[in-house]
Each structure stands twice: as structure tokens, then as C-alpha cells.
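Changelog note: in this version the structure field was regenerated for every chain. One regenerated record is shown below for reference.
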Amino acid sequence: MKTRELTLMALLVALGTTTARFAWFSVGVAKATPVQHAINVMAAVFLGPERAVLVAFLIGLLRNLLGVGSLLAFPGGMVGALLAGLCYRLTGRTWTAAVGELVGTGILGALLAYPVAKYFLGSSGAATMFVFPFIVSSGVGAVVGFALVSALLATGRLPGLQVQKRDS
């Protein structure tokens, strides 16, 4: 792993962990943290799916250890990061990373959050109870992440990072 990639990963983890304390809002039964989803899009484009998943995992772990997150951060964040990274890797288009984050977190991550909530958090409810809140949170974050990635790519100031730029 290159030093620049490791440094970017550390910065994204620090940003995701620290902003979780104050950059959130409630949506139904879930705590929406759109910065996490913006970070997933950025990590997917600049680091690839594997490292994006690692960044999402580390943010979720630190948030839980610090008491500013829940176990739901793992299925939502990690699945969204993975799908965002895979979509970008397959197409080389930044908008597909944002769509991958929205679908990965908003739908797949939300459905995977149900068993976590049921068996580990003692929650009862429908299997789809997290879909709407996760879509709202990941939708806001995916748009912000897409805008940030597009702005960074437009400047051309990404030395040392391997980014395939096709379009925004």
C-alpha cells in the first residue's frame, strides 16, 4: 500500500469518526450520518472497493467504541462502500459510485441491518424498517460525495492516486 493511499485512508477514517458525533439527524428508527456515505463514495473512487470497505469498517468500529454509533453502521456502511467501489471499478464513472452507495447502503445494507437489529439490539419490526432511513441518509451522502469527488477530479490535484477519469 502506498503512503498516500494509507494517509488518505487515515484522513477519511478520522473525518468519518469525528463528524459522526455532530453531523447526523434522526430518520425514523435510524440515526442518519450522511458524511459516512460521502466518505464511502470518495473512498470507492480514490481507493477502490477493498480499501473503501476497510475505511467503512474502521469508521464503524471507532464510532461504536466511542459510543457515537451503533452496530447498524457495519452492514450499511460496508455494503455501500463495496458496491460503490465495484460500480466505479466496472465503469470508471463517478456517478455510478454514488448510485452504488445508494443501492448498497439504502437497500442491501438496510435489509442486512434487520437481523443485526433483531438479534443483537433486540429490536422488533418489519425486515424493511431500515430501508427508508438508510435511503435518505445514503442519498444525501452520495450526492455530497459525488460533488466532492467531481470537484477534486476537476482540479486534477490528486498526485499519486490512480484514478480512472472518464466523466463526472
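Spot check on this record: The two ends are 26 Å apart (CA to CA). The beta strands are 25-27, 30-32.
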